[in-house]
Design brief:
Distance between the termini: 15 Å
GO molecular function, one term: ubiquitin-protein transferase activity
Strand content: under 5%
Organism: Adineta ricciae (Rotifer)
InterPro entries: CTLH/CRA (IPR024964), CTLH_C (IPR006595), Fyv10_fam (IPR045098)
Largest sheet: none
Structural class: mainly alpha
GO biological process, one term: proteasome-mediated ubiquitin-dependent protein catabolic process
Pfam family, one: CTLH
Order of helices and strands: HHHHHHHHHHH
Length: 280
């Protein structure tokens, strides 16, 4: 998940909270107003001999409600204001340089802008649109950009496979880049194999899972790390032969682990070629 997606999730969380508060606010108002109306109707149906007492009773009922909803309204205002603050915190709002025409006064500057747009399109997997823009803006002769293009095409393909629960292209990529990954102490390959092992448990390929775990254990020993996680996977293998979803290792089935794996792969892959993970 990109940084932009994380920021949007923060804003969405604040919006959902504000909506929930507003719904609760109006729901309580309707209930309490109905109660006050019932009291008014009951009072009006009584003899008017003690109008002062009736008036006092109604005031005692309405005043606390008025204060309660006044305070609640302040809370609602705070919840809604928080959305704006989160947006200001997460997103760049200073566009003061955009109207400056000098930013786009030469073909070289336009070319850089086109490259940035194309890279963003490639990062999103919109290859056809990027190719059309490259064709129209004549960026084909830029060898550096073409190198990035090929890299981004491959990464998008691998990420799409991870979303479809196919880990083999990602594992193959790690094997081809193992030396570079080892130099940075990356655990990407281990985490891919770990998730592949969990897949074998889910499909009840227990014999294949045992072999896979033995290889994973040797890999862990050679790296001198992840020993505790391998031990947990051994425990998961035992419970999976009954029901992994009802075992202490059910957390291995959490859907968010796939999202984390996609993020980890993207981060490590971009690091290998010196590209920023976030789109320019």
């Amino acid at each position: 998940m990109s940084m932009t997606t994380n920021m949007l999730n923060l804003v969405e969380k604040d919006v959902d909270k504000a909506i929930e508060s507003v719904q609760e606010y109006y729901s309580n108002i309707e209930s309490n107003v109905d109660h006050v109306i019932e009291q008014l109707q009951r009072a009006l149906s009584q003899p008017m001999s003690d109008s002062h007492l009736i008036k006092t009773s109604l005031q005692n009922t309405i005043k606390p409600l008025a204060k309660q909803y006044s305070d609640k309204h302040k809370e609602l205002h705070g919840s809604i204001s928080k959305i704006g603050k989160t947006i200001d915190k997460c997103f760049q709002s200073d566009f003061g340089n955009v109207p400056i025409t000098e930013l786009f006064d030469t073909p070289e500057k336009y070319k850089l802008i086109y490259m940035i747009i194309c890279e963003d399109l490639y990062r999103q997997g919109r290859m056809a649109i990027a190719d059309k823009l490259i064709e129209e803006t004549k960026l084909n002769d830029n060898d550096l950009f073409n190198l990035e293009k090929n890299f981004l095409e491959e990464i998008n393909m691998i990420l799409e496979n991870i979303r479809e629960r196919n880990l083999l292209p990602a594992i193959d990529w790690c094997l081809r880049h193992r030396n570079q990954l080892n130099q940075t102490g990356s655990l990407l390959e281990f985490n891919l194999h770990k998730m592949r092992f969990v897949q074998l448990l889910q499909t009840e390929n227990f014999q294949q899972a045992k072999t896979y775990l033995a290889n994973l254990r040797q890999y862990s020993i050679s790296k001198g790390q992840c020993e505790q996680e391998v031990n947990q996977l051994m425990g998961a293998l035992v419970f999976a032969q009954r029901d992994l979803a009802k075992s202490p290792y059910k957390y291995l089935l959490e859907p968010h682990l796939w999202l984390q794996l996609s993020e980890l792969f993207m981060q490590q892959a971009f690091q290998q070629v010196g590209l920023a993970q976030d789109s320019p």
